[in-house]
Amino acid sequence: MPETSVAHFYDELADDYHLIYPDWDASIRRQGAALDALVGQDRAAVLDCACGIGTQAIGLALHGHSVTGTDVSPRSAARAAREAARRGLSLRTAAADMRRLPFTDGRFDTVVCADNALPHLLTEQEVRAALTEMHRVMRPAGLLLVSTRPYEDLLRDRPASTPPQVHRAADDGERTVTFQLWRWHDDGERYDMEHFQLLPDRGEWRVKVRRTTYWALTRNRLADLAAEAGFVEPGWRMPQETGFFQPLLVARAGT
Fold this sequence. Notes:
By secondary structure, this protein is α/β, with parallel strands linked by helices. It folds into 2 domains: about 5-150 and about 215-255, Rossmann fold; about 155-215, N-terminal domain of TfIIb (Single Sheet), CATH 2.20.25. It is about 30% helix and about 30% strand. The protein is built from 8 helices and 11 strands. The chain is globular. The termini are far apart.
């Protein structure tokens, strides 16, 4: 797939992304609290290098951190800034590829790459390049937080779809239904994803479909790539321990 396909996918989804959550504001607060507990310092300089519309970035800003957000999707990054401002928060955002971050060396205390963003990169070379850039912009002993889907389980079960998620609008109670269809590649590791949203439209359903591709990157493989990029003591923290909704790779920048 062309390199621009991921940006196109999230540009198309930006206006409707919050509808994948039953309650987006509750998710912002819950994810922000879980990540803040791992950051473990006050007013950290945080880069969210796959900020999307701001779920984790806004959550961390609510805890007083100085957050910068970048995303390969210009429309998503712009919406993240608007959503932060609407909540009275400062969030600097920019459109940027995580493999080529537009920052000087050693600028951030913490780098976050959450919500299964890294597995959009489909080769070890691309993942290593992104992790190397994250390491470059971090201060010595800075904290890396990367979350992915639980790919060990998914590679075992090879699901063809995800359960539907239902968002109910607070003002009129109308529902939006979101689900995914997956088609696994012959290599057994990568899969094409069709993202369906059913939106109410004057008593009928309007369907939006967006498509992208992921790499089912296992925890051991990702930890090894992080070590190759210069991170030390990479380890995994699971949702039952952290309260975050996905497994989290936690590592420190080597000196």
